[in-house]
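tool_call: predict_structure(chain=1)
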Amino acid sequence: MDPVLLVAEDGEAIVERPRREVRVLFEHELLDASYARSEGGERGASPHIHVEHVDAFYIVEGELSFVVGRDLDVVRASAGTFVMVPPNLIHGFDNDSDARARWLNFHAPSTGFLGWMRGDRESFDMLPAPEGGGRSADDAVIVRPGGGERYERSNRTISILGAEPRFSALDIAFDESFHVHPHEHDDHADSFFVLDGEVEFTVGDEAVRAGPGTWLSAPPGARHGFRNGGSGRTRVLNVHAPDAGFAYWIRGL
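tool_result:
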């Protein structure tokens, strides 16, 4: 596969209704990434578990209400909050607010989530919540805006939001001297969502400038790189599926 570069709101609409929308950002066996919208009061997903994959969320706008763990603890997640749910942890979500919510959703590995949403599959890795079972709510990763494991470098700040073998997510803020030269990975998909500022992405042999709301995915073997686009400090959400030792490397271990 070649790198995938698109404005999130231009992704393929597999759910498109007045009060709810789901758009495809990246569909690959290693990662299904989507961009979703729901209006205030819209129901999301009833409590369930996954057995084989991680389910993660990054709230872009508004607020979602999650339930997690065997006691269905309620977690309100506002814009900038990251939520990661490991396998066998009960979870669900709704938009209980009066306002619109937008979020990124990640399933790693895919297990066919987007195909199921599109109607191409009868099922994927999702089971009803077991009564009194599942993992503790403490196993959910909830990172509020500005949180995470923070690592300061000379020209960038890297915050690990969540990391486990199947998936990791990082918030990277960097100035105009920071430059990741074009490269390829052979063991994972490397993806980015521009949060603030402008990024110059290398996409194959091209250099493309991209602003907030832009998504880039580089599957294994796809040439990619990135640098500050020259508009001041820039922030991206960077996700790896699987992690492939990336968080371990950032920690300097």
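agent: The longest strand covers residues 20-28. Proceeding to next step.
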